[in-house]
């Protein structure tokens, strides 16, 4: 339900801005999906409100950084070993970015189902954790990730990583079965997915991408109800 809430927030953004699309669907189709979701949850009169929250989010993010400018700055800084300076500048804006995301999640609340509404705070915490992880020590992690070819590694392994997700999805026969899983069972499936993805990334030229992904996965896991694994305890001792 946590992921469902976040995905619906992305859908709200996609319906408002053609440059923000989900799986390359036309913006009209995205808007129709948004409208259907609101109707399903008895909030057909809230479609405009949710749309406006998506528009506000797009403008909020645009006010913090421009994608093309960021790409150019990264390319210019890479040869000089100055990526840390670039990300230090952008990571200083994380409080504003968190506020953008929190406002978006609050804005889509009327059109998510009752169970998902109870996970809005968790969704906020999850995105905050992700931002904090990326911007740890003024962005040292993301700077290292890019310098070590992390994006290229992930891009080259997209199809292999997809098989990890397919395997997880096929291990659960229905939505009802997924809902009936205990916390321990859900955490075990999360661990299986992480192990699979890490295994795919380990075949890249450098260990940084797999190490970074595994560290992020453990960081996220440690903030959930999942019991901390023995392996994780050993790794931090």
What does this structure look like?
- This protein has 237 residues and is mostly helical.
- It has helices at 2-16, 27-40, 47-62, 67-77, 83-91, 94-108, 114-117, 120-134, 140-147, 150-156, 158-170, 175-180, 183-201, 208-221, 230-236.
- It is globular and about 55 Å long.
- The model is unreliable at 1-26 and 229-237 (pLDDT under 50).
- Pfam families: DUF1397.
- Keywords: Signal.
- InterPro entries: DUF1397 (IPR009832).
- Residues 1-17 form the signal peptide.
Termini gap: 33 Å
- Compute the CA-based radius of gyration: 19 Å
Strand count, sense and barrel status of the largest sheet are:
none
Averaging pLDDT over every residue, what do you get?
Answer: 81
Helix content: over 70%
Total of DSSP H or I helical runs spanning 4+ residues: 15
Tell me the strand percentage band: under 5%
Number of strands: 0
What kind of assembly state do the chains in view correspond to?
Answer: single chain
**What best-fitting shape do the alpha-carbon axes yield?**
globular
pLDDT under 50 segments (min length 5)?
A: 1-26, 229-237
What is the string of helix and strand elements? HHHHHHHHHHHHHHH
Which structural class is indicated by helix and strand composition?
mainly alpha
Keywords: Signal
Signal peptide: 1-17
Highlighted features:
mainly alpha, 73% helix, disordered N terminus, 15 helices, disordered C terminus, globular, 237 residues
How would you concisely characterize the structure shown here?
This protein is mainly α and 237 residues long.
Outline the secondary-structure elements.
Elements: H1 2-16, H2 27-40, H3 47-62, H4 67-77, H5 83-91, H6 94-108, H7 114-117, H8 120-134, H9 140-147, H10 150-156, H11 158-170, H12 175-180, H13 183-201, H14 208-221, H15 230-236
Helix pairs in contact: 1-2, 1-3, 1-6, 3-6, 5-9, 6-8, 11-13, 13-14
């Amino acid at each position: 339900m946590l992921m469902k809430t976040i995905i619906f927030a992305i859908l709200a953004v996609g319906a408002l801005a053609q440059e923000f699309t989900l799986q390359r669907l036309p913006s009209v189709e995205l808007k129709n999906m948004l409208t259907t979701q609101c109707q399903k949850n008895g909030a057909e009169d809230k479609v405009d409100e949710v749309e406006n929250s998506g528009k506000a989010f797009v403008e909020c993010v645009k006010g913090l950084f421009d994608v093309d400018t960021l790409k150019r700055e990264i390319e210019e800084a890479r040869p000089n070993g100055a990526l840390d300076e670039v990300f230090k500048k952008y990571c200083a804006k994380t409080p504003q970015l968190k506020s953008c995301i929190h406002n978006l999640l609050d804005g889509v609340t009327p059109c998510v189902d009752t169970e998902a509404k109870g996970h809005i705070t968790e969704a906020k915490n999850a995105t905050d954790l992700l931002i904090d992880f990326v911007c740890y020590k003024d962005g040292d992690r993301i700077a290292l990730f890019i310098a070590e070819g992390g994006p290229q590694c992930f891009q080259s392994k997209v199809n292999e990583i997809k098989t990890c997700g397919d395997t997880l999805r096929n291990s659960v026969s229905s939505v009802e079965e997924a809902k009936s899983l205990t916390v321990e069972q859900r955490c075990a499936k999360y661990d299986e997915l992480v192990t699979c993805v890490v295994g795919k990334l380990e075949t890249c030229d450098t260990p940084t991408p797999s190490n970074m992904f595994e560290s992020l996965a453990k960081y996220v896991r440690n903030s959930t109800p999942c019991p901390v694994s023995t392996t994780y305890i050993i790794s931090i001792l």
